[in-house]
Specification:
By secondary structure, the protein is α+β, with helices and mostly antiparallel strands. It contains 7 helices and 4 strands. It holds the Pfam family PAR1.
Length: 176
């Protein structure tokens, strides 16, 4: 076999292994608890982390397939970069709209690092918001505009100062 033919065969074999590895099926029940939250099974259904008590009374976590279908992103496990950028936690078993009461959380979710690069997390919170009658895109736009307005005030020196106390006058001499 000619050296170029051997190289071609080795290259073909290596590529086929790579393709097989990237096409691995994501099954929620096979995921470890630390990868479950923010994962989507190959079937297109979201994975959810469930907490339960074991025989010893300790809390265990298992990954289960939910009934929530995600149209895109099937077979997706969210990256650590997105989890960190968006300010979410993998050990979350439930997600609530109460998180939007925190301006710090909303700022992280609306940050370009999260909003523009982490469609799985954004889609999850868009759906959560829609169920609560809130629009995440509108919330992020409002936050961006408020931030710009604050920067404009600070950079132009248009910020008003708070109330100023009147200078203290010397007390009048006491007359007896």
């Amino acid at each position: 076999m000619a050296p170029s033919m051997k190289f071609s065969f080795v290259l073909f074999f290596a590529c086929s292994l790579f393709v097989q590895g990237t096409l691995a099926e994501v099954i929620c029940e096979n995921l470890p608890a630390n990868l479950c939250s923010f994962a989507i099974a190959s079937s297109g259904k979201r994975c959810v982390l469930e907490h339960h008590k074991n025989a010893q009374g300790e809390t265990d976590c298992t990954c289960k397939t939910s009934e929530v279908v995600v149209e895109r992103l099937s077979g997706h496990i969210e990256s650590d970069q997105c989890v960190n950028a968006c300010g979410v936690h993998r050990e979350s078993a439930q997600i609530s709209s109460d998180v939007f009461l925190s301006s710090e959380f909303t700022a992280r979710l609306c940050s370009p690092a999260c909003y523009e690069n982490c469609p799985n997390i954004i889609e999850l919170f868009v759906n959560l918001d829609a169920g609560e009658g809130v629009s995440l895109p509108t919330l992020c736009q409002d936050q961006k505009e408020n931030h710009r307005a604050m920067l404009a005030i600070l950079s132009n020196g248009d910020a008003t100062t708070g109330p100023v106390a009147a200078p203290h006058a010397a007390p009048a001499p006491a007359s007896f």
